[in-house]
Write a structure and sequence with these properties.
There is one protein chain. The chain is α+β, with helices and mostly antiparallel strands. It is built from nine helices and 13 strands. Helix 1 runs antiparallel to helix 5, helix 5 packs antiparallel against helix 9 and helix 7 runs parallel beside helix 8.
Length: about 475
Amino acid sequence: MKKLASIQQLLMRSRRMPWLVVALTLAILGGTIFVARQQLRSKVRDQIVGRDAEVLHAVAQMYLDETAKDDTAPDVGQQIFVMLKTSKLGGVMGARLFDAGGRFVEAFDKDVLEADANPADLPLLRKLRPVSRFYPAVRLSENFFLSDRKGADPVAPLLEVNVPMHARKSSRLLGVAQFLIEGESIAAEFARLDQHLTRQALAAFGVIGVILIVTLGWAFRRLHHAHEMLAARNHQLLQANQELSLAARTSALGAVSAHLIHGLKNPLSGLQSFVANRSADTQTDEDWEQAVTSTRRMQSMINEVVNVMREEESGARYEVTLAELAELVTARMQPLARETSVTITVRRDSEAVLPNRTANLVALVLVNLVQNSLQSTPAGKSVCLHFAETDEHLVCEVRDEGPGLPDELRQNLFAPCRSTRKGGSGIGLAISKQLANHLGAGLELKSSTSRGCIFALTLPLALCVGRSPMESVVRA
């Protein structure tokens, strides 16, 4: 939740984000309009240039039809005649006649230089389609003989139109008439077209841009308002979460402390009375040994709970695998195992990982259960700590090979001051039960027979934070 809050704050602080989005949107809009303008400009220019080609083609074909009325193929002379008549149209500066292969045949007038047709135009001409090309600036000396030229070579716009020559109702190309037309009028028309398209593009960009700016501005204001509300709610949730965490921690520590005091009250009172009324004639060293052992057990449990309290207060957070948890429990119980000549084995059929807070409380419970099992198991036998996993729970079982529990103790097994061991107070099972309840887990005596007892601590898998590589372990 803190990470989410930091992201929200970062977005709120980025004042340049709306401007960047608006600028990017306008750039995309401008690029789109520019590309559309260029495509439209190219198509309209092609239509303007091809317009004269279509007119000249129609006029030339009309003259050819009039010349060859008997449907015979017009010869070169007839083609030259048609070319000359067509050249009289306004704007034609000169003309050339090529054969079907694109080779020069004749030119009009005398100032037109000899040249061959462009090979790239022949495929379309053979299909009887006219071809036109516009040159914005071409040297006149490339097409005309300039006898009075002085100084620089004049440059002017030029339209080149190539018209196919063919007989009526025939698809065979007989020749090509090339007309050189002054291009000033087309250049002026192109300029007017560019101005018109530019004005339209700017108008479209302005209108759509204003609409986008207004829309994005409204959207960003709404988004900013939503971010402010979300940030405020996140802050409130964080405060509530901290308060609940503090309350839960205080409740947990209070519950542990209350049950610890309740469990220790009676045995400590009895021990105090025993010491006060002790008589050297009536008491033996065995009684003192039992008293000392019970006191040490209680003091050890107090220290363990206090250590958990301190770690809770420090706020430290880390993860504990089941292998580390099992190693912690067995390491603390190995001295007692050597003393009682009982073997501790560990089996893991789960790969769950616990947070340190949960692992610490689970360790307290398992240490108490293993300690009770070691003290109840005859020498040479074993106590098994088994971790298994079901669909929804992590099950921690402690199995011993002792004589089992009497039936009369099972009803109040987890009440303080109930124990089957001489000198025992039953405080370990009572605190373990309270710790399990605090975790939302269950602690029960799963079975008790003459071959041993099985205590099971069942935790919801929701308490786990992940998985670690699983290795089944059996430790002696």
